Amino acid sequence: MKDSMSLVEAPPSAEAISEAEGRINHEAAVLERYSAGARRREAELCCPARYDPQYLEAIPEEIRELDYGCGDPSIYIGEGERVLDLGSGAGKICYILSQKVGPGGWVTGVDMNDVMLGLARRHQRAFAERIGWANLEFKKGRIQDLKTDIETLEIWLAERPVRDFGTLMALEDYQRRQRESRPLIADGVYDALVSSCVLNLVPPEAKPALFEEMFRVLRRGGRAVISDIVADEDVPQCLQNNPELWSGCIAGALREDRFLEAFERAGFHGVQILEWDREPWRTVEGIEFRSVTVVAWKGKQGPCVEKNQAVIYKGPFQSVEDDDGHRFRRGQRVAVCEKTFGLLQRGAYADQMIFIEPREPVTEPREFDCRRSARRDPRETKGQDYEATTEAQGSCCGPGACC
């Protein structure tokens, strides 16, 4: 017979207890430091970013001064877009975006810090009167949980304080219903999502949910443009347990390659580094921390339909592979489905490919096996019965040349 004590979980060791006690409350450290930073500028919070001066003139001085970021993702946003700013803080990038997207666009900032939100909201009306339109809002929420409306939850809690297990269950039930019926941010609402020096502040255990939430709230074809701090090495636990380094956008930084992989795991495609600071912002114990700006697209999910379309990769590499495993060899016509054909016409892909449509539209599309990378026979796009003979279309030679 087994010893009955073997069925009981052993108590934690002294080392485990010591390690647990050494861990910090990441969100509390961030709230405390950024609340102070909203009242008085703290230069060490984030590395400086450059902004287009034409958009700064309309922004109140105290918002311009109390900016904590490490890049300007707003430069990649266009007119008429609906944009979500994660960790919007005092609202500087939101106020810039409000001008960039114009009256036909919309901007939402999300932050969990009451002091920062108060500052961002305080100037909304005067700002709208100055630029001539109102297309800006700020909501209270955690960026790794964009369904929970914290302000609504706080009103509910004020009337029904949690005093025992029964009221705790009532709270959990209310939160579940609120997230399902009235989420803070609904699915697939935004054309673009931006953030500047905030993702690194999210606790380690919540980072996967953060990237999943970014993916959820974007529409199909939307994109995330993120400026953040990354590390060239893994950040050891001892640095992660340092409240000053954590709240200072250092200790929570992901390793640079894992930062990009986090977008892939969440379902994004076309992940690309737009900016990479050659000089590190800070170096701690030999680890370099620098600012990067990354774009990642949503839209590779969905059915694969055969439309006899093909693409040719221009080069310069001998071959490349996309996020779905399609390999494109330089100069070769590769068969792709309708979805992939469309994806490759967006973002950084577009300038690298030649796109070939069939001469005759496919009237009875069928399923395309996207697990393969196959050469597309030109007759598939021209048609098996294509027998045209044409005259030369003008001269294809340069001046003075003989053909």
Structural descriptors:
403 residues; alpha/beta; Rossmann fold; Ribosomal Protein L9, domain 1; nine-stranded mixed β-sheet; three-stranded antiparallel β-sheet; 32% helix; 21% strand; disordered N terminus
Total domain units: 2
Count of alpha and pi helical runs: 15
**Principal-axis shape:** globular
How much helical structure, as a percent, in the residues?
25-40%
Could you give a quick summary of the protein structure above?
This protein has 403 residues and is of the alpha/beta class. Helices cover 32% and strands 21% of the residues.
Question: How would you describe the overall organization of this protein?
Answer:
- The protein is of the alpha/beta class.
- It has two domains: 22-147 and 183-297, Rossmann fold, CATH 3.40.50.150; 305-379, Ribosomal Protein L9, domain 1 (3-Layer(aba) Sandwich), CATH 3.40.5.100.
- It has 15 helices and 16 strands.
- The strands form four sheets. Strands 1, 2, 3, 4, 5, 6, 7, 8 and 9 form a nine-stranded mixed beta sheet that branches.
- β12 (319-321) and β13 (327-329) form a beta hairpin.
- α10 (207-217) crosses α13 (256-266).
- It starts with 13 loop residues before the first helix and ends in a 21-residue tail after the last helix.
